[in-house]
Design goal:
Blueprint lengths: L13 H11 L4 H17 L4 E8 L2 E8 L4 E4 L5 H4 L7 E3 L12 H4 L6 E8 L5 E9 L8 H15 L6
Antiparallel strand pairs: 1-2, 1-6, 2-3, 4-5, 5-6
Helix pairs in contact: 2-5
């Protein structure tokens, strides 16, 4: 199998989305501490090895809060969440990243943390701008998630958005 990696596109209204990201207040360092319990609940509810709350900014992905993996900044070009925000009203599910042409050659798949399964619920403002995702991921592939798990992930993402300033 040819190992490819397709970087996520930028949104059509990227400048407005970036303004909304900054105005949301979710990038403040203290927010991550306040949202850790939601991220931990997502990981436990979906029985995955890792979960994160990510915000996509410019060329970066910022892990605001995480469980099972560290926080910090990674490249948007290798992020799963950068793809997820392009379809802000749907939970993106990748059952096996090694079999998905967008991710098979992605360093997050081929190297640490060896992501195989991913599910991400976009964090969407009332304006329609997706800021990032609440996502869960695992080094083991899956066939998908149940409707109950998908709804749980969506509800937890909505709880995260309760912390965002309205813009």
């Amino acid at each position: 199998m040819l190992m490819t990696h397709i970087a996520p596109a930028y949104t059509a209204d990227e400048d407005a989305r970036e303004t909304a990201v900054i105005a949301s207040g979710l990038l403040y360092p203290e927010i991550g501490l306040r949202l850790h319990d939601i991220v931990a609940r997502a990981r436990a509810s979906l029985h995955t090895g890792m979960a994160a709350l990510t915000i996509i900014t410019g060329d970066d992905q910022v892990l605001i809060a995480a469980d099972g993996i560290g926080t910090g900044t990674t490249k948007r070009s290798t992020s799963f969440c950068g793809h997820s925000i392009l379809n802000p009203h749907h939970v993106m599910i990748v059952p096996d990243a090694q079999l998905d042409r967008r991710f098979a050659g992605n360093p997050n798949v081929t190297d640490d943390p060896h992501i195989r399964f991913y599910a991400g619920a976009p964090l969407v403002l009332a304006s329609g701008h997706a800021l990032g995702t609440l996502c869960v991921f695992d080094p083991e592939p899956r066939t998908g998630i149940s409707l109950r798990e998908m709804e749980e992930l969506r509800q937890l993402a909505a709880k995260v958005m309760a912390f965002a300033k309205r813009s």
